[in-house]
Specification:
heterodimer; A: alpha/beta; Rossmann fold; 12 strands; 34% helix; globular; disordered C terminus; B: alpha/beta; 8-stranded mixed beta sheet; 4-stranded antiparallel beta sheet
């Protein structure tokens, strides 16, 4: 599914997020651009510290100071949202952009019953009275597959299991029928069997409501199953972005390649997993040129000085010098 | 894996009918006034398996199925309620066997899940790794200990100079390497690894799994590997046991279990794994959730979620039976209703 800019629901352009510290400015997200089309699920993968959650936080306007958006634009349905005042953003958050976080226990208030949390959110965003809001809350709980929703609605979060709590959180995110949901590791805290339930629920709901999702996770399996397109992040930059089949089956960037090889597969036995030596650099130690160059097996002199830009390769876009026209190779090869 | 013992007539570790219940009753006065009964969590409820020398035996299951409790029972962090644990034929389970336990214990070490919580933040790495050496009195000369610590650090892919640093200076993967070095310092032959890679990123996980395999080949270690990740389990183990609510429902060698799962729960778990190859395939989610171990379902604990359940499954607890070397506890398999 290729998306041209004019029909994008969310469009992020040259986003740069910085953390000023006493020892200099750390750049956590460095000049990334991507689009999400209506109804599309964009997966964002990467190791911890790659900047994937921070990108999600920037979109819902939840970057904690001293972190700040230093450059770039975030457009939601053609409206610029990254520079909105706090109060205006509050009306977008929840109404037009919903959020689902990793740990369902911390995203629910333990002192309020589920019905109160749902009706409060519904009434904040929609002009409904108490009774209508409760009715809507009940419908939502049924929709996310909570058995006996009519009874369960007055229960407190601790009375639900992990998988059920995550369903409540999804219901909460869907309250105002947002156009976009930022799902940050929604299944990481759950068992595989429950994870499968939550993923298929999320997919079904997006399909039915036409909601777009930015699915942030480190689990390639979840991405392969749920996402339409995937962006692979490394050291605050996008290394590769493209349709999920392309990236999973025919990874182009050496990092994506290594990442895919390091995942054990059931069925074909290997004695050793592919190993990417070393680890992702800390923010204050990102090398010049391509951030992956110290770990890359196909590194050239050029990678150490010049930063590669994302460029179209077949259906994907890859930020790697290996792919700038083979002509360059000829030049360097003498 | 060259040293998988062919002459493994006697297993290295053998667990038989192991039971551990935890008392979770309300306080005495509440029980008296509210007429409550005593309540127990049957975390481990009668499980048996053997581990041969040089093997990697994995326990898989969803959270709360009791797999970590088994690990803790084996290394002696918990006392079993009933059942036996034999190490090289020596009984070390019950409290009476404390003497033998003390003698055997040093042969076992444990690697924990969270490399942030399992290292003392105030100790230098060299002291952390030297602790088992000192406790066991393996070496007494300070120079020798320093040499050995440096040695261990290089074995796990760190540099001897890293011994002077503190745990917070290391990344998650490096800390897990330190945990492994510490476990190896006691010169164990049996390592219990409780989710050693689940807190790590996949690329780091690959490094740690490769390291663990390499050490096993080099030092002839035997592993009990606890994990919820079936792909990791497939990669590392020679035998796999699948746990559900404190019981082992199926136990077989890795290849057989993954190629021909028999127990309906094993089949469901395998179905639930996201498949990287066939992008877009709809996996069949397991219906329902794990019931509470305080009040497990009657009969076969899996029956409320099982598509093959019938009356007998609701009443009678299935016993493990052996089919072509595969241990399965299921009425449907025993009756030939599913193959």
């Amino acid at each position: 599914m290729t998306v041209s800019n004019d029909q994008a629901l969310l469009s992020v352009r040259n986003l740069r997020i910085e953390f000023p510290t006493r020892r200099g400015t750390l750049v956590a997200v460095d000049d990334i651009s991507f689009d999400i089309a209506p109804g599309e699920i964009l997966g964002v993968v990467g190791e911890s510290g790659a900047g994937k959650s921070l990108t999600g936080a920037a979109i819902i306007g939840l970057i904690e100071p001293p972190g700040r958006i230093a450059q770039g634009q975030i457009m939601l349905e053609g409206q610029r949202i990254d520079n909105l005042p706090y109060e205006d953003f509050r009306r977008i958050r929840g109404r037009r952009i919903g959020a689902i976080f990793q740990d369902p226990l911390t995203s629910l208030n333990p002192l309020y019953s589920v019905s109160r949390q749902l009706t409060e959110t519904i009434q904040t965003h929609l002009p409904l009275n108490e009774r209508e809001a409760r009715q809507r809350a009940l419908e939502l709980l049924e929709e996310v597959g909570i058995p006996g929703a009519a009874e369960r609605i007055d229960h407190y979060p601790h009375q639900f299991s992990g998988g059920m709590r995550q369903r409540v959180v999804i219901a909460l995110a869907l309250c105002a029928e947002p156009r976009l949901i930022i799902a940050d590791e929604p299944t990481t805290a759950l068992d595989v069997s429950i994870q499968a339930q939550i993923i298929s629920l999320l997919k079904r709901l997006c399909h039915e409501h036409g909601t777009a999702v930015m699915l942030v996770t480190h689990d390639m399996g979840v991405i392969a199953e749920a996402a339409d397109r995937v962006a692979v992040m490394y050291s605050g930059r996008i290394a590769e972005i493209g349709p999920v089949q392309e990236v999973v089956r025919a990874a182009k960037h050496p990092y994506t390649h290594g990442l895919m090889g390091s995942i054990p597969h059931i069925g074909h036995h290997v004695d050793q997993l592919t190993q990417i030596e070393g680890s992702m650099p800390r923010l204050q130690e990102i090398p010049p040129g391509c951030p992956f160059n110290p770990r890359c097996e196909q590194v050239t002199a050029r990678c150490r000085v010049e930063r590669p830009d994302l460029q179209a390769v077949e259906k994907s876009a890859v930020a790697c010098h290996l792919f700038d026209a083979r002509a360059v190779e000829a030049q360097v090869g003498e | 894996m060259n040293n998988v013992a062919d002459n493994s007539s006697a297993p290295l570790l053998s667990v038989d009918g192991l039971v551990r219940h935890f008392d979770v009753s309300a306080p005495f006065l509440n029980r008296l006034f509210e007429r409550l009964d005593r309540a127990y969590v049957k975390a481990v409820d009668g499980i048996s398996f053997d581990i041969g020398r040089g093997e990697t035996f994995s326990l898989v299951g969803e959270s709360g199925c009791g797999k970590s409790t088994v690990a803790r029972l084996i290394v002696g962090l918990y006392q079993p309620t009933a059942g036996s644990i034999q190490y090289e034929g020596v009984e070390i389970g019950p409290p009476e066997a404390a003497q033998d336990r003390k003698r055997i214990q040093p042969h076992m070490q444990m690697i924990f899940q969270d490399p942030y919580a399992s290292l003392n933040p105030r100790w230098r790495v060299a002291n952390i790794i030297a602790e088992p050496i000192n406790v066991r009195g393996l070496l007494s000369n300070r120079e020798e200990i320093r040499g050995r610590v440096g040695d261990l650090l290089s074995q796990v892919g760190l540099s001897p100079a890293d011994g002077e640093r503190y745990p917070h200076e290391f990344s998650g993967g490096q800390r897990q390497r330190i945990s492994i070095a510490r476990a190896l310092a006691g010169e164990p032959e049996f390592l219990v690894c409780d989710e050693p890679t689940s807190a790590l990123d996949v690329s780091v996980q690959a490094q740690i799994l490769n390291l663990m395999k390499e050490l096993q080949n080099r030092l002839g270690l035997t592993y009990l590997f606890i994990s919820h990740d079936l792909a990791v389990v497939y990669h590392v183990s020679t035998k796999v046991g699948v746990m559900y609510l404190g019981k082992l429902v199926e136990w077989a060698d890795t290849k057989t279990l993954f190629e021909k799962p028999r127990h309906p729960y094993t089949r469901m778990l395998l179905d639930a794994i996201p498949d990287l190859e066939m992008t877009g395939r709809a996996r069949i989610p397991v219906a329902g959730e794990v019931p509470s171990p305080i009040n497990p379902p009657s009969g076969c604990a899996f029956h409320p979620r099982c598509p093959h359940a019938e009356d007998r499954c609701r009443m009678e607890m299935p016993k493990a039976q052996v089919y072509d070397g595969v241990h399965v506890a299921c009425h449907a398999v025993a009756d030939g209703r599913i193959s």
